[in-house]
Specification:
This protein is an all-alpha fold. Helix content is 76%, strand content 0%. The protein has 16 helices and no strands. α2 (21-40) packs parallel to α3 and α14 packs antiparallel against α16. This is Probable purine permease. It is a multi-pass membrane protein. The chain crosses the membrane at residues 48-70, 76-98, 118-138, 144-166, 173-194, 206-225, 246-264, 284-301, 313-334, 340-358. Belongs to the purine permeases (TC 2.A.7.14) family.
Length: 379
């Protein structure tokens, strides 16, 4: 739990001591009930579990499909960028499905006009398009194991940004989680598959390395800024509608930017021949792009939901947990060899995630205990 939220609840509880006992009890009960409904209720736990599942499944499938696209004849970096954001129309039915969702009244710290809110979404959209482009270049020019290694550094970048932007409280368990999850993915660089992909020169590999590092740093910053936007700028905090809004509106902007890049670069002229020359056939080419787009949307729902309900650092910890899963899935679908390094990487990732989860449990238990004591003392 973030330092700001815990401080606010404790301050409310302390202020209630100065009021009459009935008023204090009523106020604390409202706060405790609200906190329990959002943080400790069964429905909340189910939502968190679902978001985690979407992140792990979406990320793993999207990375493997992206690698498949380049391995089997795909060559357009702008197309690879576009499919990461163009699947947002699949989320439109969710607006109708969750239209009657009841959410607590929430007033953002800073009130923004519709024009300024649109500017926020536009900024996130353009930033997202840039990060997706860097991601596509890195995935094209680097081996999957090395690519996963560098992507794990986003957790360290996010931890640094969360410290200054989100006032993230660091404890020994969180530090332990960050270290273990980073080491877990770092081990993958020692895997024997760390040779250059077929047809990639040393110069292109260096470009891929620089782009992947830049993408990791930018993505860590984007997660922290997203949490900041939920906490300080946007309304309907903790609602599913706000989660979908943060995906759809930036995705519209990012898709437009990717389409402009696709035509401006001239890569659109090669898409027809690329489809016909795809090793798995034209239908497989189309389905690869479609399923890649859908998997990225599942990942986006999971990540944005975790940022909204928990924190940017927690969502990144879940994403980093999923990085060692990719080599394991590669064993199943691409018949890669499984070795001790992959097994150790997976175990360390699970250990690091459990460490972070235990810290979340301690935070919720501590907050509930404080509210209970203040409630009892006011009676």
């Amino acid at each position: 739990m973030g330092k700001t939220q815990e401080h606010e609840l404790i301050t409310i509880a302390a202020a209630n001591k100065e009021t009459s006992a009935p008023e204090a009890a009523d106020t604390i009960n409202v706060v405790a009930s609200s906190d329990a409904s959002q943080n400790r209720g069964f429905e909340w736990r189910v939502q968190i579990a679902l978001y985690i599942l979407l992140v792990l499944v979406g990320q793993s499938a999207a990375v493997l499909l992206g690698r498949l696209y380049f391995d089997k004849g795909g060559n357009s970096k702008w197309m690879a960028t576009l499919v990461q954001v163009a699947g947002f129309p699949a989320l439109f039915p969710l607006y109708k499905f969750f239209r009657k969702e009841k959410t607590p009244n929430y007033t953002p710290t800073t009130h923004l006009s519709p024009l300024k809110i649109a500017s926020v979404y536009t900024f996130f959209g353009l930033f997202l398009a840039a990060m997706c482009m860097l991601y596509s270049i890195g995935l094209k020019y680097m081996p999957v194991s090395t690519f996963s290694l560098i992507c794990s550094s986003q957790l360290a970048f996010n931890a640094l940004f969360a410290l200054f932007i989100n006032s993230q409280k660091f404890t020994s368990y969180i530090i332990n989680s960050v270290v273990l999850l980073t080491i877990s993915s770092t081990l993958l660089c020692f895997h024997s598959d760390s040779s250059l992909p077929k047809g990639v020169s040393r110069r292109q590999n260096v470009i891929g390395f620089i782009c992947t590092v830049g993408c990791s740093a930018g993505y860590g910053l984007q997660l922290s800024l997203t949490q900041f936007a939920f906490q300080r700028l946007l309304r309907k905090k903790n609602s599913f509608e706000s989660t979908v809004d943060m995906i759809v509106y930036p995705a519209i902007v990012a898709s437009c930017a990717a389409v402009v890049g696709l035509f401006a670069s001239g890569e659109w002229k090669t898409l027809n021949s690329e489809m016909h020359q795809f090793e798995l056939g034209k239908l497989s080419y189309v389905m690869t792009l479609v399923w890649t787009a859908l998997m990225w949307q599942l990942y986006s729902i999971g990540m944005t939901g975790l940022i909204n309900k928990m924190s940017s650092l927690f969502s990144n910890a879940v994403a980093t947990l999923g990085l060692p899963i990719v080599p394991v899935l590669a064993v199943i679908f691409f018949h890669d060899a499984m070795d001790g390094i992959k097994v150790v990487a997976m175990l360390l990732a699970i250990w690091g995630f459990v460490s972070y989860g235990y810290q979340q449990y301690l935070d919720h238990y501590k907050l509930g205990h404080v509210l209970y004591e203040d409630n009892a003392s006011s009676l």
